Amino acid sequence: MSILSVKNVNKNFGGLKALNNVNLTVDAGTVHAIIGPNGAGKSTLLNCFIGRLEPDTGTVTFDGTSLLGIEPHEINQIGVSRVFQTPEIFGELSLVDNVMIPAFAKRDGIFTLNAWRQIKTETAIRDKAMVMLEDVGLAAKAGDIAGQLSRGDKRRLELAMCLVQDPKLLLLDEPTAGMARADTNNTIDLMKTIAQRGVTMVVIEHDMHVVFSLADKISVLAQGTVIVEDMPENIKGNPKVQEAYLGGAHL
Ligand SMILES: Nc1ncnc2c1ncn2[C@@H]1O[C@H](COP(=O)(O)OP(=O)(O)OP(=O)(O)O)[C@@H](O)[C@H]1O
């Protein structure tokens, strides 16, 4: 059953066709990877899922609700969370505070600093935040200041900030970018655990080891168009993919 459906989406930047009649279907409970060369339109497409960009034409539907014309926080509220390429965390706050903030935002609709001062002591939310930090392997650092974390840990923290919102759909933009291999493998394991819990994931990723370790289905974008959508085993040898994606090189 489809949870995210993209139909005939076009997006131009001036004279540049960043998305050219994109169609894509993500099935519930699957990991769906979007790959393609630099500038193919992957981030532009993801931004159309979270209200950061509005397509010029076409539809984006999540769980029966159109995602177009609604605010990013409302999209978040209905169950879509995104992990960014550059982690968006609160650098001066502790890890546990970082995870509590999105938990409150999810519960109360929108987050305000005044509310934060009053509710910071709520133990149920603090306990939930601690469970999420445990899940991503950061519980021992719960009281540390987030800005001082390593790059890999910052990404794990951001993942905890998404998971605390109990998302139905998790969007990950290059979740292992800049990580050493050991960190990448830990992240793959973590994402597998999240997938096993039934969270649908859309992953943009350049690292083919990550893509082929995780994906149930892969969409290949080239010059703003989905040129192939198929199972991983059918992607590697696809000449269209090799030509468009790597200029004829073998994946
Ligand atoms: N805000 C913008 N204004 C103008 N052009 C843009 C804007 N955002 C993206 N583009 C252009 O749209 C095209 C698609 O960019 P996009 O970032 O979506 O590609 P991508 O597949 O995510 O690339 P990468 O893998 O390098 O991150 C590129 O040519 C890019 O330069």
From TrEMBL:
The keyword Transport applies. Keywords: ATP-binding, Nucleotide-binding, Transport. Signal peptide: none annotated. GO terms for cellular component: plasma membrane. It holds the Pfam family ABC_tran. Gene3D superfamilies: P-loop containing nucleotide triphosphate hydrolases. One of its GO terms (molecular function) is ATP hydrolysis activity. PROSITE patterns: ABC_TRANSPORTER_2 (PS50893). Residues 4-248 form the ABC transporter domain. SMART domains: AAA. It comes from the Bacteria. This is ABC transporter ATP-binding protein.
